[in-house]
Specification:
single chain; mainly alpha; 11 helices; 67% helix; ELO_fam; lipid metabolism; transmembrane helix; EC 2.3.1.199; lipid biosynthesis
């Protein structure tokens, strides 16, 4: 059974200084809980310091530093760059939708979210691991989306929802791979989210062709509806799992952060949808 975070902290409390306790919580815990098969990969092998630094630098740039630098600068057009970037993400997400479907045995694999026994890897799970690591890296590649908004001075696109979503997704993927890389939750999220992102980045790709294509983009609002549907799926799966006690073996650190995310995301995306497409109902 997976060692639980609060028990580890209690063990660290015995005969240690306050500094040592903090070091354990912020660094050593993540080293100890990382499976040996994960440790060779960049950003995932040791403590979270480098990963956290990268995420904080991105956050500072897109929220404060970048907009301040660009305030007196001419916006970058980046049309060709965006076309290539969005095309790459379409292919990436098509690939991972198909790959995650294979992980799930095309729906025949049990979707029970109980955590598998620690350090017991099947040959299939070992073979799947490199692709799961690459999927985590693609969540970092997604961060360029916001950087391009900054460089193009599209400040209205850099909403709290956008920043929160892009900031939290890599963090959740990082925590899952560090603490419970074999969970079926990772595979389900990858499958559903890759389908959603295939549609979304296809829209971004087509829209980058210029103003003449805008009349053909009437289906934009349906992207948000699909996003709402995915959070309904996640939320229902989570509630069922909690009801049947299937989440108790997960690390408490992950439970604290992940449990309420489907509901938080649904609320924020719903507010975005209403504000963007159905303002009359806000009256």
């Amino acid at each position: 059974m997976h060692r639980v975070f609060d028990k580890q902290v209690m063990m660290a409390n015995n005969g240690t200084t306050y500094t040592a306790k903090i070091h354990y919580i912020l660094h050593q815990y993540w080293v100890d809980e990382t499976d040996d098969k994960i440790k060779p990969y960049v950003l995932l092998g040791g403590g979270p310091e480098l990963f956290v630094t990268l995420m904080l630098l991105w956050l500072i740039f897109v929220v404060k530093l970048g907009p301040n630098i660009m305030v007196d600068q001419k916006p970058f057009v980046l049309r060709k760059t965006l076309m290539v970037y969005n095309l790459m993400l379409v292919f990436i997400n098509v690939y991972f939708a198909y790959t995650a479907a294979k992980w799930l045995d095309y729906g025949f694999k049990s979707w029970v979210v109980r955590l598998p026994a620690r350090n017991k890897w099947s040959d299939k799970a070992v073979d799947e691991l490199p692709d799961k690591i690459i999927y985590f890296y693609t969540k970092l590649f997604d961060l360029f989306d916001t950087i391009f908004f900054v460089l193009r001075r599209k400040s209205t696109q850099i909403s709290f929802l956008h920043v929160y979503h892009h900031f939290l997704t890599p963090i959740l993927a990082y925590m899952v791979l560090k603490l419970c890389p074999q969970t079926v939750i990772f595979e389900i999220v990858c499958f559903v989210n890759s389908i959603v992102h295939t549609v979304m980045y296809s829209y971004y790709l087509v829209s980058s062709f210029g103003p003449w294509i805008q009349p053909y983009l009437w289906w934009k609002r349906y992207i948000t509806r699909i996003q709402l549907l995915q959070f309904v799926i996640y939320g229902l799966a989570l509630l069922i799992s909690i009801y049947y006690g299937l989440t108790t073996d997960y690390p408490i650190a992950l439970q604290w952060l992940a449990t309420w995310q489907p509901f938080m995301f649904f609320y924020m995306f719903y507010r975005f949808y209403v504000n963007s497409y159905n303002k009359d109902k806000m009256q």
